[in-house]
Amino acid sequence: QVDRYLYHMRLSDDVLLDVMARFQAEMVKGLGKDTNPTATVKMLPTFVRSLPDGSEKGEFLAVDLGGSQFRAHQVKVFDDGKQSSQLESKFYPTPKEVIQGNGAELFDYVVDCLSDFMETKNLKHKKLPLGFTFSFPCKQTKLEEGILLAWTKHFKVRGVQDTDVVRSLRKALQQHKASFDIDVDVLALVNDTVGTMMTCGYDDQRCEVGLIIGTGTNACYMEEMRHIDLVEGDEGRMCINTEWGAFGDDGALDDLRTEFDRELDLGSLNPGKQLFEKMISSLYLGELVRLILLKMTKEGLLFNGKVSTALLTKGKIEMKHVSAMEKYKEGLSNTKEILMELNLFPSEEDCIAVQHVCTIVSFRSANLCAAALAAILTRLRENKKLLRMRTTVGIDGGLYKTHPQYAKRLHKVVRRLVPNCDVRFLLSVSGSGKGAAMVTAVAYRLAAQRKQIDAALAPFLLSLETLREVKDKMRTELEYGLKRETQASATVKMLPTYVCGTPDGTEKGKFLALDLGGTNFRVLLVKIRSGRRRSVQMYNKIFAIPLEIMQGTGEELFDHIVQCIADFLEYMGIKGARLPLGFTFSFPCRQASIDKGTLVGWTKGFKATDCEGEDVVDMLREAIRRRNEFDLDIVAVVNDTVGTMMTCGYEDPNCEIGLIAGTGSNVCYMEDMKNIEIVEGNEGKMCINTEWGGFGDNGCIDNIRTKYDKEVDEGSLNPGKQRYEKMTSGMYLGEIVRQILIDLTKQGLLFRGQISESLRKRGIFETKFLSQIESDRLALLQVRRILQQLGLDSTCEDSIIVKEVCGAVSKRAAQLCGAGLAAIVEKKREDQGAEHLQITVGVDGTLYKLHPHFSRVLRETVKELAPRCDVTFMLSEDGSGKGAALITAVAKRLHNVGQK
Ligand code: ADP
Ligand code: MG
Fold first, then answer.
1. Hexokinase C-terminal domain location, by residue (predicted)?
2. Does residue 730's CB lie within 6 angstroms of at least one atom of ligand 1?
């Protein structure tokens, strides 16, 4: 009879799968930006992004408001490798006049209790961080804030809805501070579901769902940031408080709700709200049973149709009664006793029937709960793209804990609904209060870490003012390099290149070019056509220069170069032709003419002996002679910056600057002859190779150099030299990052404090990894994969930090480079006496070309620091090789003209 009567409360698996699907759809709705406003399941971001990692430590306070009892806790977390913690708690009553009174009274009461707790635990003299477990739906925009959306359960305090409860608590604490001498700092607002997940997460790293089945019901889980429309950022995960109690408030469950559910809802504090919760949680199950019994009695199905006053009284049957009646092991005695207390006179049949009603009501609760949980688990599994998933659900709540059959039933149904999830249900022993302390502990750890990371990266943040200073200093150094009296000691050497003209389009012929100075050595054959068929054709071959040759003797180096040329000529079948050759040699050379260049000093990765102070053209000629196999007409020695400028100049006559941002960093530009004191003549212009990489070698930018820069410098081939280059170019950026990572690891902020073997290796962190890691399209998981390739075993949080470090280093590089370039364009503008300058910069270099942000930040900085210059950046396609050929062609043309 009862079965037939309560037919609608018995849910088959098909119905549950349907509920599961409905709940899944609701979750998606709640997560979407446009659909959230009308979603019933609010899917609230909690700003809890990390689970405990075991390195938390300290002493924390927590208060827990919103469950059946109000509690204060003290939690000590030990960083002893055993993840131990200590919890002491005290319960306080929640009188009806407080939880249905006004806001100020509520928070005063909370603080009174806390103050009492601190008194008893002797904590009054301490300044402690506090986590606030507040188990009502709150809209958060950060961890320590929560706007109450609505009261639920048995709470209804006036003047709190739509206000920030953390602020109210802080305010109450502030008022108490003076009179009671307590000093606590509210660091986190936590929903009880989150607290439960965190508590269980401390013991089981796999825990990523928190579930409450008590006075109320609710669940939270770790969602991928990229699915959370309401919070900026795509990286990592964040805990979502589903607030699933409101599922069905739009009528989505009306087909499952019975007349009893409707009646119960009408008599509640919040009619029409929390309809799912009202079918599940312990606050309502007793009342549901009462309503059913009442109706059955009235219809004569129970107790001989005799209704007692007690049965007519709201709230007379509570959850504890339902639980007791369902203790089947104890037969019918409990049931009988409870019914007698309600002034009912049950027959044995009545008792069996009532027991059965209780079972149907509480089983439905477990079924519905299981369906929604199954939806969450499925979502988690799909997020992880796993076919099978192992996970842990942290659970708390009186109904789950004390009801004799509830837990078993729930587990069984969940496993039936999601057979591809291996679920561990972990009961939270110490409850949501400890969880709030854990959240606080994690927040505390993260805040402390954040401070340390910010401190480490602060020197990389350059203010506009600092950048202006850099620009001004660069300008001063440029002038020193040009002046006769100061140029000898200048750090920015401003080397004349004897390149005085740009191509005019009449150049033609076949040329050889060499490109030495970066990562690769190349030999090129360049065919230039003039006139209507104006074009440049190139053939090239790349040769490696082994480290032992880069850093061996000069003779070996040049013999190797000639060997490569011989291979190339052979390969192209042009060994007999005595072609004019341009030699791109990207190191500082003092030139006395276009085909003479004395090496001032090696930079970047080169350090061959017996070359400094020698003429590189002579050395090349001698090597060719030594080989005695072919002859070449070496016409020009060219810096790569100049080659780049010339290449772009061939397309755009406005191009008067050449910039390299590759292995090294350097700039050249067209200077008025009258300003170049060390070269005779005042007519026309000549290209100056600034060699600005040496900027700062006199200490003028030491104020912005960090300890990491100094370490990189000391570990380099040329300590003390090229200080600006070492802050701005591809050869060093990765190394700066590595130094920072080592330091952060030493401080215990990364890689669990373990400096891996690979992190110790100089050069392991190449600049191309910066580009990869900083790419916007890259998900965090991929960053982790890159780090893994480097032998660095990183967590999600590690990856975020590494990415930040890379960003700081590359941004500073681009800004410094921009400040230098601003000095040059401003100088040119002033020299021309122009209000505005329109100019093109030819650029080459893999850092500029491939880094996702470098070029943009560089351009923005120039715009900011030289607002009166309109600078166009032109990428040079294969600039240095082609440029050398063009210079050779120009030189050849001018030479021929001269001869004629
Ligand atoms: P050059 O050695 O002539 O300067 P490039 O302009 O090609 O040659 O620069 C090579 C340098 O660029 C490498 O030494 C490295 O530091 C850097 N680099 C290589 N790949 C990348 C990348 N993907 N992103 C940024 N920088 C890179
Ligand atoms: Mg190059």
1. 209-442, 656-890
2. yes
> Six-digit token pair at 219?
């669940």
Please give the number of the atom of ligand 1 that sits closest to the Cα of 520. Answer: 2
pLDDT of residue 476: 97
The residues with which 393 forms a beta bridge, in sequence order, are: 209, 425
Q: Which ligand is nearest to the CA of 775?
A: 1
| CB of residue 662 inside a 6 A radius of ligand 1 | yes
Give residues whose Cβ lies within 5 Å of ion ligand 2.
518, 640, 662, 880
421-439 pLDDT tens trace? 999 999 997 666 678 788 8
**Nearest to residue 490, comparing CAs of 677, 731, 735?**
677
CATH 1.20.1640.10 fits 9-280+366-450, yes or no: no
The continuous run of DSSP H or E covering 671 comes out as strand 665-672
Closest residue by Cα to residue 606 from 457, 716, 750, 746: 716
Amino acid at 846: T
3-class state of residue 90 by DSSP: strand
Nearest CA to ligand 1 atom 1: 518
Ligand 1: which of 515, 806, 846, 850 to mutate, judged by most atoms within 8 Å of the beta carbon?
Answer: 846
Q: What is the 3-state secondary structure (H, E, C) of 751-804?
A: HHHCCCCHHHCCCCCCHHHHHHHHCCCCCHHHHHHHHHHCCCCCCHHHHHHHHH
Residues marked as catalytic: 522, 586, 640
* Residues written for the chain: 900
Cβ proximity of 695 and 477 under 8 Å: yes
Amino acid code (one letter) for 675: N
pLDDT, one tens digit per residue, over 320-331 is 999 999 998 889
Helix (H) or strand (E) holding 148, with range, is: strand 147-148
Q: pLDDT band for 81, please (50, 70, 90 cuts).
A: low
